[in-house]
Structure formats: structure tokens, C-alpha cells
């Protein structure tokens, strides 16, 4: 396994059966700066003391505990290119996509960061292809990361088709691909295992949880970069908009690749006093009606515990239904079955607000006034509908017992983007 640019613990080296660490630089995992402990892997400055007197970093403990008595090993030797970077995607960019793609290449060539602000379904991934191809053909390393596992799972087959002759390493929690590659596809957390390793980092869905509000993940990107960073989102947050005002290069696309407008959500008021033990008949009828049109249906709920309960209620109507949440060990299998239309209705939490593209798919949000559904989450959720040109008018309905600012803001933002 090529370890160039890697930043690993002793336990990780043992798991990878790496015996020769002569080329690695060892350094204390935690150091003291101005009287405070600082983690050298994630940069967190709030380590916790253990009963035996050691300090450990709780911020990045999900990657393995690091204490002030442990070492980190950084492999700083030059990277040996292994991919040809040839683009085997045979699609054609629209004029708007081509303009954004060209602007992106110009920024990356100049070493400048860039934001692609594009509506859901605009084809952001395809716009990256020429830049990725150019970088890998030049022997440079590229990482495409996202805070969401499901985004990575969605992108993996698309990238492997687009770069069929280039090895691609895919890594996320519970899946550590040891393929030697110039192209890494991973969750953002995985970048904590690298130091100054990538000539280009692409952060997809940069405003999504858990990256939003988690400085450690932003530090992970900064620590792993040695070149520009490209951000992708349909709903830039305040920090990104502030960066735009300070000069961050940006390409805007407010039209989907097929040219149709975004489906505008309908807001339907109803009584939710008996949720989740009973589902209002109007919602059940709406689900039956959209499935009868040959569409799949994503039904979003605000709480993990509601997913199986409401799935069971919908299933009583003779439909093929499943509930899925972040805690579901069969999550990947259920999502695959939904994509393959073995499941007609998938009841889900916001874990699938991004990263799932299913043609002919209606979208409903139950209890849409719940605080789990922020304005940006609702925009992303609505964006799951209308992804195919022959079904661009897939219905989107926010079922709610009251109006909220988030509901109104989400609808207003979608209408605004359609008008640009």
C-alpha cells in the first residue's frame, strides 16, 4: 500500500501490517501550546484527562483514541502516480455546465479555491470531470469528499464509470479500501488520516451535517490540502457566502441539466395530534396516488424512531415499504432496493436529504414544521424530485400542522431559483 501523504497511528499501521516505517516522521499525537493540549491529528484544543493522568482527544476519537503518550506517523515521501486519468464518460455538458466547468479549471490551474453553487440536479459531478482528468493526467492527487456516507456511495459507481481505467479508493466508516490510487473518494473524516497529501480537494455538500458546525472537519480539509479546494452545494451557508464576499471564485447554475424548473413544493395543513401511531388519511391517499402513477416515493420524517412506525402504517395499504435511518444496519441494502424499485416507498430521516438520485420519484415530508427540517434541508429534500427529464414534474408536498419560517423560506428559495 502506498502511504505517501498518510498520517496514521501505531494501531492503524499494525492493522495495515506496515512494518517498515523508516520513511515516516513520528511526532507526538498531542502537544502543549500555551499551556493547553492540542491534537496534532485534528487540531482540537480540548483534550480530556483520563483517570491515569493521560490526556486524550475526544474530538477525533471515532478514528481511534490518541493520548499524549501516543505517536503519529507521517509519510512525507513523494507520491508515485498510478492512474492515467483518462475520461471514459461520453456525455456532453450543456453550455451552462461547460461555462462553469471551464471557470473551475481556470481557478484550479491558478491554485485558487472555487465554489460551484448549483441547484440540485444541475449535474455538478459531471462538471468536475475535465478538471479531475487534467489533474490526474498530470500525476497529481485528487480527493473528493463529503460529510455524508450516502453521497459517497452514490458517487462511487458514477466516478468508476467516468474514470474506468483509473484506480479509485473509496473510504468511509467501516469501509477502508487500500487501493493505491490518485483519486480518493471518502467521507471528510477520512482526511484526518492525511497530511498535505492532495493537490485538489473537492468537498461535495459542504453545508451538510455534520460538516456544518464542526470546525474539526474543516480543519481536516485544510490539513490534507496542498492545493486548491472546490466546494459544491445547492444551499451555501453563511460562511460560504461570507467567503464569496471576500473574493471566493463562484460559478452559479440555477437550471437543472434537463432544462426543466425545480418542482415547487405544495404546503398542506393538517392535524398531527396522533402521529406517529396514526398517519392522517390524506397522506396515505397521497402516497397511494403517486405510486399509482408509476413513481417511487420518498417520505421524510423528523425522528429516527418514526421511520419504522410510519413505514408499517403505509405498508398496511399493500405497498412495498421500508423505513431507514442512520442507525439501520441494513441502510445500504434498503437504499439499493429502493433505487432498483424493489421498494416503492422509502420512509427516511434527513439522512437521505442529499445523495440519492432516483428517476420518477415523488417526495413528501411528514411534520414538515419540525425543527429537524431547516430551510436548506427542505430545499435539498425537494430536490430529490424531478431528476429525470421525462418526469420533471414529480410532486413535492410538505405536510404540516403550521407554517414556519423554514417552510416559507424553502419554498421562496425554490421559486426564486426557478425565476433566474
From TrEMBL:
Transmembrane segments: none annotated. Pfam families: Helicase_C, ResIII. It comes from the Bacteria. GO terms for molecular function: 3'-5' DNA helicase activity; ATP binding; DNA binding; hydrolase activity. PROSITE patterns: HELICASE_ATP_BIND_1, HELICASE_CTER. The keyword DNA-binding applies. One of its GO terms (biological process) is double-strand break repair. Residues 278-420 form the Helicase C-terminal domain. CDD domains: DEXDc_ComFA. Gene3D superfamilies: P-loop containing nucleotide triphosphate hydrolases (3.40.50.300). Residues 105-254 form the Helicase ATP-binding domain. Coiled coil: none annotated. The keyword Nucleotidyltransferase does not apply. Keywords: ATP-binding, DNA-binding, Helicase, Hydrolase, Nucleotide-binding. This is Superfamily II DNA/RNA helicase. It comes from Lacticaseibacillus paracasei subsp. paracasei Lpp71.
Amino acid at each position: 500500500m502506498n502511504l505517501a501523504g498518510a498520517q496514521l497511528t501505531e494501531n492503524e499501521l499494525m492493522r495495515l501490517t506496515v512494518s517498515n516505517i523508516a520513511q515516516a516522521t513520528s511526532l507526538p499525537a498531542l502537544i502543549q501550546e500555551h499551556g493547553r493540549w492540542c491534537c496534532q491529528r485534528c487540531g482540537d484544543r480540548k483534550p480530556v484527562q483520563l483517570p491515569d493522568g493521560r490526556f486524550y482527544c475526544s474530538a477525533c476519537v471515532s478514528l481511534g483514541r490518541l493520548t499524549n503518550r501516543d505517536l503519529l506517523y507521517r509519510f512525507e515521501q513523494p507520491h508515485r502516480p498510478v492512474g492515467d486519468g483518462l475520461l471514459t464518460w461520453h456525455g456532453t455538458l450543456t453550455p451552462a455546465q461547460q461555462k462553469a466547468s471551464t471557470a473551475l479549471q481556470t481557478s484550479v490551474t491558478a491554485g485558487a479555491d472555487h465554489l460551484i453553487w448549483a441547484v440540485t440536479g444541475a449535474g455538478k459531478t459531471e462538471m468536475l470531470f475535465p478538471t479531475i482528468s487534467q489533474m490526474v493526467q498530470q500525476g497529481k492527487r485528487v480527493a473528493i469528499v463529503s460529510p455524508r456516507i450516502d453521497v459517497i456511495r452514490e458517487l462511487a459507481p458514477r466516478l468508476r464509470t467516468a474514470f474506468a481505467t483509473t484506480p479509485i479508493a473509496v473510504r468511509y466508516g467501516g469501509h477502508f479500501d487500500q487501493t493505491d490510487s490518485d483519486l480518493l473518494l471518502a467521507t471528510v473524516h477520512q482526511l484526518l488520516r492525511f497530511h498535505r497529501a492532495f493537490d485538489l480537494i473537492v468537498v461535495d455538500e459542504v453545508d451538510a451535517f455534520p460538516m456544518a458546525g464542526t470546525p474539526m472537519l474543516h480543519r481536516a480539509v485544510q490539513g490534507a490540502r496542498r492545493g486548491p479546494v472546490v466546494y459544491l452545494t445547492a444551499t451555501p451557508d453563511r460562511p460560504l457566502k461570507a467567503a464569496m464576499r471576500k473574493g471566493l471564485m463562484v460559478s452559479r447554475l440555477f437550471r437543472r441539466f434537463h432544462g426543466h424548473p425545480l418542482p415547487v413544493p405544495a404546503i398542506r395543513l393538517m392535524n398531527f395530534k396522533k402521529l406517529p401511531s396514526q398517519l392522517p388519511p390524506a397522506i396515505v391517499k397521497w402516497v397511494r396516488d403517486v405510486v399509482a402513477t408509476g413513481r417511487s416515493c420518498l417520505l421524510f420524517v423528523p425522528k429516527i424512531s418514526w421511520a419504522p412506525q410510519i413505514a408499517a402504517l403505509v405498508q398496511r395499504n399493500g405497498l412495498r415499504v421500508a423505513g431507514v435511518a442512520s442507525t439501520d444496519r441494513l441502510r445500504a441494502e434498503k437504499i439499493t432496493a429502493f433505487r432498483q424499485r424493489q421498494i416503492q416507498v422509502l420512509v427516511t430521516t434527513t439522512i437521505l436529504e442529499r445523495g440519492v438520485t432516483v428517476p420518477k420519484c415523488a417526495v413528501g415530508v411528514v411534520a414538515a414544521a419540525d425543527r429537524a427540517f431547516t430551510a436548506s434541508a427542505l430545499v435539498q429534500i425537494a430536490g430529490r424530485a424531478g431528476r429525470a427529464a421525462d418526469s420533471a414534474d414529480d410532486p413535492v408536498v410538505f405536510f404540516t400542522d403550521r407554517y414556519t419560517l423554514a417552510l416559507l423560506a424553502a419554498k421562496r428559495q425554490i421559486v426564486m431559483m426557478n425565476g433566474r
